Amino acid sequence: MSTIYEQIGGSEAIVSLVEDFYARVLADPELAGFFGGTNMSRLKGRQAEFFVAALGGPYPYVGPSMKQVHQGRGITTHHFDRVGAHLGESLRAAGVSDELVAQILDNIGSLAPDIVTHKTVHRTVGAGSGRLNDPPGGAPH
């Protein structure tokens, strides 16, 4: 069975995907501000490295952790979801099947706790107090 990396076309496809993805993200007025002053060439390279590793490619990701990179940036669940929507659009534009897009987005979704720094991550029933949108450590007192 081939990896997602192989199914979407390998490194070349990922580099193109990252270009399209950031064009969409930077055109989004709700997200563009997060990238002011960012060396986009470097960021795109890191993102491609991450996707190669995350999608089963031949090289491990050796960059900083997702938590480190996104810490203190004020990213909400809304922002995370918008980025995910742009990624889905980029994947579909590259000809990736809806089934594979869903699988990739599910995998990326598992990173929300490390990326969302303004905690509005929805909890599953039975976790902690069982309430949605509680801040870290449970409901406020």
TrEMBL record:
Coiled-coil ranges per UniProt: none
Cited InterPro entries: Globin-like_sf (IPR009050), Globin/Proto (IPR012292), Hemoglobin_trunc (IPR001486), Hemoglobin_trunc_I (IPR016339)
Keyword Lyase: no
Upper classification of the organism: Bacteria, Bacillati, Actinomycetota, Actinomycetes, Mycobacteriales
Keywords from the UniProt entry: Heme, Iron, Metal-binding, Oxygen transport, Plasmid, Transport
Protein name: Group 1 truncated hemoglobin
GO molecular function: heme binding; metal ion binding; oxygen binding; oxygen carrier activity
Cofactor binding notes: Binds 1 heme group per subunit.
Family the UniProt entry places it in: Belongs to the truncated hemoglobin family. Group I subfamily.
Cofactor or coenzyme needed: heme
Residues binding heme: 70
Stretch forming the signal peptide: none
Pfam family membership, one: Bac_globin
